[in-house]
Fold:
Amino acid sequence: MTSTKPPETLLQFASRFRTEKQCIAYLYALRWPNGFVCPKCGTTKAGPLKAIPGAMECENRHMTTVTAGTALHRSKIPLQTWFMGAWLVATLKPGISAVQFQRQLGLTRLETAWTMLHKLRSALVAPERDKLNGECGNPSHTEHWIEIDEVYVGGKESGKERSGRGAESKALVMVAVEVHGWPAGKGDPADDESGNEGGTRRRGGKADNEIGLRTKAGRCRMRIVEDGKAATILPFILDNVERGSVIWTDDNPAYNAASRAGYHRMITVAKGDANPLPTLGRVTTNLKRWLIGTHKGAVQAQHLQAYLNEFTFRFNRRDYPWIAFNRVLSLAALGRPAVEYEGLYKHTWIHPNPTQGPVQAGFFHDE
Ligand SMILES: [Zn+2]
Ligand SMILES: [Zn+2]
Structure:
């Protein structure tokens, strides 16, 4: 049985996906981790059909191909090229442009590169489903909490101001970030991200750094919202954060609803210019740099949620980028509503938004 543990290095990748056959075996193993089952009759008695590469035939003469109905099926592009594309998309932190993608894969037409790239990337823009809870089981961590805030993203200026020049081109985004905390000297020093942006969370007049608490970010979630009212904030929290979690917010009274819904809500107040939610501040600073740097800030409003989902996906797997590889391949092999070039070009494609609930079928085991 072919292993579905993704390759971790370029060298491993090169030896594991040298041939079309190896790629096909990997796709089969991803789709049927416990061995092949005929989708038509359920039998496990089946063998490869010699005449068609990648096809299986069961004892009742049902023919199955692992790529049927997907972007990979009867594609003129070899599976190895698709796999390399998935690898580039999954592991290159800032993402990759269509021109770079075309060059790296040796594709003749830019349109082909562009379409492939978007098909592969659409796996990253599906919303994440599991809820944040912070608990990680690391015995040196003494505290876990989730920082939540609304921030303005896009436009020419950054910051939280609600009116003024440039505000009309910004989107309001709800952000939630898990935080792990431990006393100075106890946790792994390499994990320490505390205080990079000069912010600090305060309670009872004391700041985290004054009591020697070190912190690092866990996972995050982001959603474009219409406003910062309780009726908007609460559904975001319910969808993304496990009830019973400790949440830290600013003093916006709209968050009072979260206390009534079963969250342990704590309030932190800004002192001077310091960000009272420092870990969340570091994440949103990264987001803004990524949008400006990789995408030159030229993100259209209708695509912003897709970028937020992609940022979230990469951020949450920043320590294990190759894990994204199976997920990226999944799109191609799942045959989910494909992002077609036409749809993207004409802006008829609607990016999945977490408010619309889960859309992901779940046979890919990427975590
Ligand atoms: Zn069958
Ligand atoms: Zn932890």
Notes: Residues 10-35+67-121+334-356 form one domain.
